[in-house]
Amino acid sequence: AGIGKCVAMDLARRNARTILACRSRERGQAAVEEIRAATGNPAVVLRLLDTASLASVRAFAGAVLREESRLDVLVNNAGVSGLPFAITSEGLERTFATNYLGSFLLTNLLLG
User: Fold this and answer.
1) Contact 102/51 with Cβ under 8 angstroms?
2) How many CA atoms lie within 13 A of 76 on its CB side?
3) Is 3.40.50.720 the CATH number for 3-111?
4) For residue 110, how many other CB atoms are within 10 A of its CB?
5) Is the pTM of this model over 0.70?
6) pLDDT band at 1 (very low <50, low <70, confident <90, very high)
7) Please, where are the H alpha helices in 40-101?
8) CA 46, 103, 82, 7: dihedral to nearest 10 degrees?
């Protein structure tokens, strides 16, 4: 939703292979279908990613590195605010993990 979906729509309109990295399979698939229909670009795909989970970030990055021949643009757009204090299963504060650590790790893993 929001800025991320707009950026994905623009990239798909430019005929780019576009990977939507989403927490929710249902919402992500709905966005994929909407973007494909609006742009006519069938190369819009969904991959699950929760940036609050470093294990999820590592799995996502590993899959991208294995499955994609190249990566030209990375848009780090995940973020949360106003959530109650919580600790992830990895012992990290959830907002900090989501907004900073996950994106930082993802970027570094994808640098190759």
Assistant:
1) yes
2) 15
3) yes
4) 15
5) yes
6) confident
7) 54-67, 94-96
8) -50
Q: How far apart are CA 68 and CA 61, in angstroms?
A: 10
Whether the per-residue pLDDT at 69 is higher than 90: the answer is yes
Residue 88 CA to residue 86 CA, distance in Å, equals: 7
For the chain, the residue count is 112
Strand positions, DSSP E, the chain? 18-22, 44-48
> Where do the structural domains in the chain lie, given as residue ranges?
3-111
pLDDT of residue 88 exceeding 80, the answer is yes
Q: Cα 93 to chain center, whole Å?
A: 20
pLDDT at residue 71, as a whole number: 96
Detail the DSSP E strand segments found in 38-104.
44-48
pLDDT tier for residue 50 given thresholds of 50, 70 and 90: very high
Q: Which residue has the tokens 């600790």?
A: 87
